[in-house]
Specification:
This protein has 13 helices and six strands. With about 400 residues, the chain is mostly helical. Among the domains are: about 20-45, no CATH class; about 70-115; about 195-200 and about 210-290 and about 300-375. The relative contact order is 0.11.
Amino acid sequence: MRLTKGLKPIDRSQDLQPGQSFIVHYNNTSLRNRKDLWLGIIIPESLTTPTLLSRRHRNAKPLKGDWTVPVEKHILANSTRDDCKLFLDLHKLARRHREADFWFRMAEEERRIKGPLGRKPYLVLPPPKTASPDNGSSGSSSSSSNGDRQSKGPSGSVSGENRPSHLPTDPQDSIQEPRTPPPPARRGPVSPKLIVVNEAIKTGEDDSVLGDQFRFGQKYDLEQIGSVAELHEQILRLGRIYISAKVFELTTMQVLTLWKLQAAWNSYSGVPQLIVFLQTVQFVFEKTKRCPDSLVQGTSTEPMQRWAAGFLADLMDVFFRAYPEQFWTVLRENPTLQAAVFERRAANLAKNPEKYVDLDKQVQRAGEVSSVAVRLRVPRFFFAFSFTDAYMETLRTSVVIDSYT
């Protein structure tokens, strides 16, 4: 595919505004004049500093009227290039019409992290506007301890230094390093992995778990759960991971997070766990309302909307008896979810009314059986869609973007 396909010169009479973004067809001198697609941002000289503004050659490319096009046009990057993912990530940022100040702070942060000679392509996002100068110095002092978790290579991992302090949790809690684990006395919070307990298990109506929306029964389990407190902590953490994936539009990670939530319920189902799942659903829907307008909010196409509607509909009677006030609070605050729950519940009762007899006893009995069975299981292999290090590294981008949306 020709990189120039779809690119047209900008009208020389067009008045360029600060913060306006363009796709630029550029000869990259650092790659032996290899033709590149660049994202150009108009930044007035009044915002720049001597450290960011080098002396421009008289005929430096690209000039106004060269092969450029407004970034709103749909331009496909060359998928054979290693930095294609990086270009697409930048393209998403540019289409959100960031202000010139955003790109200036982004360039300043990139210069601070990469240095004047750093040419390796990876994305560096600017710190939040609320960050003070002291925060910047503290971040640089901790960079040596974070090691390879600071920056993002061509695949798309993002710098983790720029974490706003007002987020509900430190995102570092949800990130695992591929290093030798510390001794048990020093072990910190971990993110459980989804494993296949038995590859031969086939789920059916007889062995299904009430509330199981994916119908995989107890085929999958969560590793690294040692106590009820750890289970509750990880369920809440999965809710935070889901929000981070949603903010950065990682639909696959959203679905995988729901798989982990479902595995947690199927393996450790019980009345005491219901309140934690309810809190997780409430947290996700509250944060969803603050997501960018470009993301789908509270519709039937939202993965959490579909999963939560089915889960709450299946266990509605148990919620009524155990946590009625909290249950109705969640539904009242989210009318779309409430309508979906009632509709799903009516459909379930019409299809299989016998399934919803003595629900609390079913849940309690399942919890007792699963709590014993989990201790006897030996993992065979990790589930193919478990969160990889690349996914967890990509997750770090969301905590930065959340501060601007």
